[in-house]
Amino acid sequence: MPDKKPLVLHPFTFAVYPILFYYSLNKHEVWFSETLVPLVISLLVTIVLFLLFKLAFKSTTKSGIITSLTLILFFMHEVIQKGINDNDSVKLILDFDPNLFWTYGILLTLATAGLYFWNEKNQKITGYLNAVAFFLIVFPLFDLVSHKLLTPKSTLFAPTPSDRTAIPDNFNYVGPKPDIYYIILDGYMRKDVMNEFFGFDNSNFIKSLENRGFYIAPKSRSNYQSTWFSLASSLNMEYFLENFLVDSSQSINNIPLFEAIAQNKVAKLLKSIGYQYIHLPSFQADSALTKKNNQADIIITNKEYISEFSRHILNKTFLKTFKLLSLNEFQTKRREILYGFKKLEDIPHNEKPTFTYAHFLMPHAPHAFNNKGELPAKNSSESEKYFGEILFANKKINHLVNYLQQNSKTPPIIIIQGDHGYFAYQGSTYRPDANVIKKGYSNLNAYYLPGIKNEKLYEKITPVNSFRLIFDSFFQTKFGMLKDKSYFITNFTSVRKLIPVPSEDSFNKSGLGAWVDTLEETILNRPDFERAHTMLGIYYKELKLFPEAKVALKKATHLNPNLAWPYIVLAEVYFDEGKYTRALQEIKHAIDIDEQMPAALALRGKIEMFTGKYHEAISSFEKAI
After folding, report:
1. Which of 29, 131, 310, 413 has the lowest CB atom count within 10 Å?
2. Average pLDDT value for residue range 335-346
3. Taking a C-beta distance cutoff of 8 angstroms, is the pair 366, 424 a contact?
4. Chain centroid to CA 73
5. Do the Cβ atoms of 437 and 190 come closer than 8 Å?
6. Contacts 24+ apart (CB under 8 A), 110-119
């Protein structure tokens, strides 16, 4: 009785696996619907390849093998390249064939010839490949299901606002309806902070806005240091609940923030009184948001229907070697921003009143413009690229503002705002000092409110109050103003939590002591908040108040024994006191919680160096790298 031939399933599994794998890695900021187009295209291409090879080989089994090999080489191009580069014995290949074009050609030629002349039974190979493919696909599928089941239901804002933030059911404004422009320049700092830390004078741009009737808040700060938190808050005119929960223990989850932006209260209220909502997403940051922004009446985009997720996948494949413009993030950013500024000039000619939320990913990296609008020099420093893009953004904003003011039938309302400062460029930090906070939260905050006296605006206004002021001043609502505050998003684990940030005045007065005062007040209100105890211990340690630091950190470990950072800082305290044995005990607790934590491993190596355990120290440092 002849052996039953196994079904050739592996090529089609290999076709979908990379897409599901990359989605699994990015599920916290990508909707599953974004995988559908690349999944369909990958399967269709695989079917075509499979049929062509079958026509050549006259064998389903051989066709499946060569199709799978082709897919593996295609999707794993970046991994293979890196593997060769890290292996000294074969690294020479990249000197002669940096893109692996000839290497791939030789491999596929040999594989094709070998299969063509191979007459042995090869059903077992099909079985093995089916098993490997099945084994691989299980992991992203399990991860996706567990993420769906374990991610908590999120409540971002207070469910029953006590300060009248809910949109009135009978709201029916019938007065003048000027166009409203909310223009976000991602990562645009305040003028005085640019000058203080970088010696950059942005006063000409600020004066040009003031000459056009703008009020620029001289001491504005963003409410959060992250784009998604900042925009979700400003567009909903509320702070997040301090004990909000959107993340799981496995990974962060930005999807609820995207949804809060897409279904924001500002657009909802304006649409209810006849406004048309226009959304201009940034080329990169709003790619997921755009797909779900079903509130928007018009979405302005110049995309060639390659989503950011699809571009991310393709940039890992063999296609990257062809240097396609559609896969180049710098060229994509240039096209999107130039197109966006041009299309905004069409809005004043719209018959209906409009609310436009336009998000430009500038001066945020990747930097695609110098002061002349050209690509910046590759050897420029990050700060040079940042301020070169600032200068180009200034030119585009000046031109746009001038056009909107001259061509609008009714003088428009214009807000030009940075969603945060330079924090994204500081690197990850768990103990921000006054300077990091000042650079990270100070933001451009400019208002053109025709007919409204500037007395209603004030120097410390923050984005959460921008639309509260506009609605109360122009549309007779009674939202009122919230106290201007900023929050630090802690990421000691994947579950992010919020800590109030000291005011700029308190930093100026007390330095790091401002953190101690703010954290002690936070703990009074939330005594079981282990992150606050951890940060309090950090700042006591920085102030050399070691007994107080140990009390705070031990309280944090008591509240949450699975939080590694209190143990790390405790080890630092004991190290500074010269108690190396105790320091090693504390760092062992941290490594028991997370054995691959670089900060813990590096600190262990440092302690081992000081105690003469040089071989152990080298091992610890190698693991930390």
Report:
1. 131
2. 95
3. no
4. 30
5. no
6. 111/65, 111/66, 111/69, 112/66, 115/57, 115/62, 115/65, 115/66, 116/56, 116/57, 116/62, 118/62
| Residue whose pair of structure tokens reads 């094709």 in the numeric block | 112
Is the distance from CB of 266 to CB of 235 less than 8 angstroms? yes
Residue 183 backbone dihedrals phi, psi, to 5 degrees:
-105, 115
Express each pLDDT in 612-624 by its tens digit: 999 999 999 999 8
Nearest alpha-carbon partner for 444 in 217, 227, 281? 217
What's the pLDDT band for 424 if we cut at 50, 70, 90? very low
Chain segment 454-497, per-residue pLDDT in tens: 778 999 999 999 999 999 999 989 999 999 999 998 877 767 88
Cβ–Cβ under 8 Å, residues 361 and 337: yes
287, 227 in Cβ contact below 8 A? no
Which tokens in the block code for residue 29? 């900021």
Which contiguous run of DSSP H or E holds residue 355? strand 354-360
How far does CA 255 lie from the centroid of its chain? 11
Beta bridge partners of 413: 180
Which pair of tokens denotes residue 261?
């932006």
pLDDT of the residue at 1: 42
Helix, strand, coil tally for the chain in percent (to 5): 55, 5, 35
Beta carbons of 24 and 37 less than 8 angstroms apart? no
* Largest Cα–Cα separation, the chain: 93
pLDDT digits (tens, 9 = 90+) for 394-413: 999 999 999 999 999 999 99
Q: What are phi and psi of 356, to 5 degrees?
A: -115, 120
From the CB of residue 113, how many other CB atoms can be counted at a distance below 10 Å?
A: 10
Q: What count of residues does the chain have? A: 625
Q: In whole angstroms, what is the distance from residue 620 CA to residue 602 CA?
A: 6
**Cα 48 → chain centroid:** 37
Going by the DSSP 8-state scheme, the letter that residue 5 receives in this structure is P
CB-based contact 281:290 (threshold 8 Å): yes
What are the structure tokens assigned to 249, written together?
Answer: 């223990």
Q: Decide: 213 and 389 in contact? Cβ < 8 Å.
A: no
Helix axes 36-57, 101-117, angle to 10 degrees: 50
Run of H or E including 299: strand 298-299
Report yes or no: 503 and 519 within 8 Å, Cβ to Cβ: no
Task: Kindly tell me the burial class for residue 315, based on how many C-beta atoms sit within 10 Å of its own C-beta (0-12, 13-18, 19 or more).
Answer: middle
Q: Crossing angle for the helix pair 466-474 and 227-236, nearest 10 degrees?
A: 20
The SS3 assignment for 337 reads helix
Q: Nearest Cα to 257, choosing from 242, 235, 279?
A: 235
CA distance 126 to 474: 70
Closest CA to 603 of 578, 622, 621: 621
In whole angstroms, what separates CA 24 from the centre of its chain? 16
Mean pLDDT (the chain, rounded): 88
- For residue 200, the tally of other CB atoms under 10 A from its CB is 17
Distance CA 205, CA 498 (A): 34
Strands (E), 178-273: 180-185, 215-216
CA atoms within 13 A on the CB side of 132: 14
